[in-house]
Each structure stands twice: as structure tokens, then as C-alpha cells.
């Protein structure tokens, strides 16, 4: 009987994971404190400092993440977020799995979720605009031409809140319906790959490796200290 092979492969670098969790925690603090400042102004003074500290952490983490996008290695790089034809096809399959509530199986991919990857790029733009509008508002600049920076900041708050909620739900969905251990992968850096043998393969023969060859070569070089 043909059997699948299970491999545990490092996908995310330590620096990228630190950036991910730094951005995640700072965004959660910013969303909560920003909500209090807007809707419970009597408590604004008590959360202003937390809002500014979280903003500073977010700026630092985002700068490092953008540096990795251009000068990092492997899955850190920007090219892994840019959608190609295959990624778009895979992204549609992910969306179908969401809409079917898991009745349609998720496709397989190596690092970035093919549906979410281009959304991350959009998120980076929104976060940069949010940081810029926040700094200008801090310096009492409220308008650029006819553009209201306060309204822009509120729109950014709403977009990031929606992204955060959907991202959390999707992460749990993938761990429940998939096999890649996506949540723990962003903690320890390793994803799980189930490699199915091709049809007609002789029992006991090694399955075809679905992990990109350059990724395997990189992991072997790191293991040997090269």
C-alpha cells in the first residue's frame, strides 16, 4: 500500500517571525487604544502612552520586514508575495475552501498563503499610510489639500481591524482543516508537508518531493554550517 511521507521543513526565518509577532501585538494594542481614544475620550489620557509605544514598535517591525523583503533570503523576499498565474489559481482554490467551510480541500503551497500574499502587500501600504497620518495628526496637521487625515486614519483603523479579524479566523481554519501547522509554524519556523506518492509508484519507493529544490538545498547548507 502506498504511503504518504511527512516532512517538517523550516520555512520562516527567525527575524521574520519576530517582525510578524511584533507587528501583531503592536497592532492589537493600537486598535484597542485607538478605539478607546475615539469612543471613550474620558479614558484617552490613560492609553495615549500605550498607543504611542505600540506605534513605535510597529514602525520598527515594519521597517525590518520591508528590509527583509528586499535583502532577506528565501521566504522573506518580496517576490514570494507577488502573485503569478499559479499563485492566483491556488488563491482561488483557497477561497473556494473558505466558502465551502472546508468541504473543498485546501491546496498545497510552500510558504505564503497564495490568497493572502497579495493582501499582505496591500496591508503594508495601509499600515504605512496609517503611520504617516498618525504622525501628521500628532503634529496638529489635519488636512493635506482637501484630504482629511482624521478620516484617513479612521479608514485605516477600519481596514486593519477587518484584516486582523479575518486573518485570525483564517489561521484557525487552516490549522483545523489543513495539515501545514500554520500557527505553530509562525512560532517555531517549521511547516509540515504531507508528500503524496505519484500514481503508479511502486510500494516502498520514495515519494516525489513537492518542496522546492532550492529550499531543500538551503536547509542542507544551513545544517552543514555552510
Q: What percent of residues adopt helix (DSSP H or I)?
A: 55-70%
Strand order of the largest sheet: 1-4
Query: Which range does the strand content fall in?
Result: 5-15%
> Roughly what is the average pLDDT, rounded to an integer?
84
Give helix and strand order, one letter per element, not per position.
EHHHHEEHHEH
- State the end-to-end CA separation: 39 Å
Q: What is the 3D shape? A: elongated
Low-pLDDT runs of 5+ residues are 206-226
Oligomeric state of shown chains: single chain
The major beta sheet can be summarized as: 2 strands, antiparallel
Q: What's the number of extended β-strand segments?
A: 4
Spatial extent as radius of gyration:
21 Å
SS class: mainly alpha
Put simply, the count of helices is: 7
Explain how this protein is built.
The chain has 226 residues and is mostly helical. The protein has 7 helices and 4 strands; from the N terminus they run E-H-H-H-H-E-E-H-H-E-H. 61% of the residues lie in helices and 7% in strands. The strands form 2 sheets. The chain has a two-stranded antiparallel sheet with strand order 1-4. It has a two-stranded antiparallel sheet with strand order 2-3. Helix 1 (14-39) packs antiparallel against helix 2 (44-71), helix 1 (14-39) packs across helix 5 (149-177) and helix 4 (117-138) runs antiparallel to helix 5 (149-177). The model is unreliable at 206-226 (pLDDT under 50).
